[in-house]
Amino acid sequence: MSQGKAAGRGTAKPQDQGWAWMVLLAAVVLQGLTLGFSCCFGVFFTDLQHEFQASNSETSWFPSIMVAVLHGGGPLCSILVKRFGCRFVVMLGGLLSGLGMVSSSFCKSISQLYLTAGLITGLGSCFSFQGGLTVLGYYFVRWRTLANATASSGVSLGFTLWPLLSQYLLDEMGWRNTFLIFGGILLNCCVCGAIMRPIQLASGSVPQSAKPKEEPGSRAEEAQLSNGASPHHPTLQQHTKRAKCFQMLQKYVAFDIFCQNKGYQIYTIGVTWMMMGFALPHVYLVPYAIHNGVEERKAALLISVIGLINIFIRPLTGLLSGHRVFTGRRIYLFSLATLLCGLSNFICVISAEFSVLILYCVILSIAMSGVGALTFQVLMDVVEMDRFSSALGLFTILESITLLIGPPLTGLLVDITSDFHYVFYNSSFFLISAALFMGLSFCSLEKKAKLREPSKARLDNPSRHQHSEMSTELKAESQSPPAVEYITSI
Questions:
Q1: Model's pTM, two decimal places?
Q2: Which of 18, 80, 356, 447 is 20 to 30 A from residue 267's alpha carbon, by CA?
Q3: How many angstroms from the chain centroid is the CA of residue 262?
Q4: 16-198, which class in CATH?
Q5: What spans are recorded as compositionally biased (Basic and acidic residues) (predicted)?
Q6: Contacts of 44 (CB under 8 A, 6+ apart)
Q7: What is the pLDDT of residues 444-485, one digit of tens each?
């Protein structure tokens, strides 16, 4: 295996055509195998509770850990992608996912599942998912919105097929053998990673690694050396280490973007708060239905209904949001979809009959289609593509915290009250409040930018005036990605 950035002297591969569509197909399968996989654990919820004599809160920890690690491992994934390339990282993720589920089949306690299914499988899914997501941003420019929406339909396929397969295998051979089979299925992430060939640089471009950049540590070292300080002086070494550590954090966890870009700041806070309630129906819908007398097979079918409708709605959402009318305004579509998700939860509070739950799943899946198709596209809108990986790192770390604590805290509330309705009350509260926060905040931000424009027009020339605050925070999707990011031959 050879690593490093490809030389920037060759012929550029065409984007939005040719092999890019094979990469998109691999990304669809990857998202079904990773993001879609976590939805099936509601099928095993009751069996695992009985097997390990665990409470709702204890049982909900291992899917929460899996989903939290899947989202929160972004910075580590970014470092590995920089070092080894997307193909290697995706294949490594497939190996870890398979190993985690095979190990889970031999677990003797619920706490062991936290390590195997939660940490190991979650980390593997993170590498496969985020490696595949990152490479899409460089294979697609013109059709990036459609590509992201189409790739997210893989989640819908996962939502449709995983619960049905899980219930069938659970009935036929028990949860341990089912987990063993799942380990083999997740190894297909390695096949998807093999498809993701490295992108060649544009003709005549210069690799970033060839461009000398002054670092804070090097400037400090030069300053002290000029004053006669030894390069091995302890103070100088400590200062250099601190500078390198800060530079590493800034590169892979975008604290500087969070402080300077108000659009990114609002969006990250809103999504982080939203995730406290977004995952609750996925974890507790099946146990809620079974608790209210619905047959296990019918209860598993509820998640599949959500996924089936998502398959058709997500690409349509991508096409709609990709229209020029919504350029820079996709955040409002995202907020509307989040609001609808929150309002739909009140249907479950009204009744737990199977026909009512089917209606709930239909409405929820339509709203989820908008959230799923737009989550990362909005992030690409509010930050520059060359900082997308680091912005994604901080974004996923923060949302992973709320994904981790949301289901167990709600499970604890259910254990105390013995009332599953609190699952949907909590979910509605977090989703509705997050939707209102993001929508109103971006509306206020846009109004402030418009008020500044007349005064800037009198002071600035036209070439400077076009770089307004909103244009940097809500940039058009047509900006092409840098040609030198994540280029590795393996």
A1: 0.70
A2: 80
A3: 20
A4: mainly alpha
A5: 211-222, 454-476
A6: 166, 170, 175, 178
A7: 988 887 787 766 655 555 544 444 444 444 444 444 444 333
